[in-house]
Design the sequence.
């Protein structure tokens, strides 16, 4: 059994690919978990964690929070991956989501800084004759940050998720037929977008393909 905090080296097979990966815990001095391994597998194979089926020693690995040792995954083990990569379109949308997440974090940091400065003024850490100008500057920064946040919300609203939870493009609409997304069509399931009431507005990733 691997010692606490020690990385575990496994071989991942996916279709005709083979990847040797070293899984380390994201927590300091922690033991690597299935979640740690799944995230690393997503990086090397392009198969998103929610769509991975991992098999080791004939056993399906499902409990992401469990340490690898508790699941019987040790150094030198072979792990088989079954799953589907995102399409280039989906990858582009996922990248947008990750970029937006970073932007939200930056905005949160800006607001935290403003809050600290405002608290300092309220506690009298700034001379009274300078407070009025300082508050004006803080007001401008807050308004600017709010505008940035609204733009991010608009961008998030423009990214559509299908019922399987995957980002998808395009939104296909065959004339005279029910609209659907490529992911659901490929998997042969009823798309969430086709059940919307009222229906999803025309223009959402519409391609009018025949």
Sequence:
């Amino acid at each position: 059994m691997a010692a606490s905090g020690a990385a575990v080296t496994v071989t991942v097979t996916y279709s005709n690919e083979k990847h040797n990966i070293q899984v380390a815990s994201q927590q300091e001095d922690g033991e690597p978990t299935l979640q740690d391994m799944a995230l690393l597998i997503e990086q090397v194979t392009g198969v998103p964690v929610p769509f991975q089926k991992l098999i080791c020693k004939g056993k399906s690995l499902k409990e992401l929070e469990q340490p690898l040792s508790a699941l019987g995954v040790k150094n030198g083990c072979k792990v088989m991956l079954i799953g589907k990569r995102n399409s280039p379109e989906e990858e582009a949308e996922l990248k947008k989501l990750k970029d937006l997440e970073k932007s939200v974090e930056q905005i949160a940091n800006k607001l935290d800084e403003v809050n600290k400065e405002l608290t300092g003024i309220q506690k009298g850490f700034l001379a009274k004759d300078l407070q009025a100008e300082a508050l004006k500057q803080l007001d401008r920064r807050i308004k600017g940050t709010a505008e940035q946040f609204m733009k991010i919300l608009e961008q998030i609203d423009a990214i559509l998720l299908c019922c399987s939870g995957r980002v998808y493009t395009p939104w296909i609409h065959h004339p005279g037929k029910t609209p659907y997304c490529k992911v659901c069509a490929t998997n042969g399931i009823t798309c969430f977008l086709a059940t919307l009431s009222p229906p999803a507005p025309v223009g959402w990733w519409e391609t009018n393909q025949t």
Notes: The beta strands are 8-14, 17-23, 53-56, 59-61, 78-82, 171-172, 180-181. The radius of gyration is 24 Å. The longest strand covers residues 8-14.
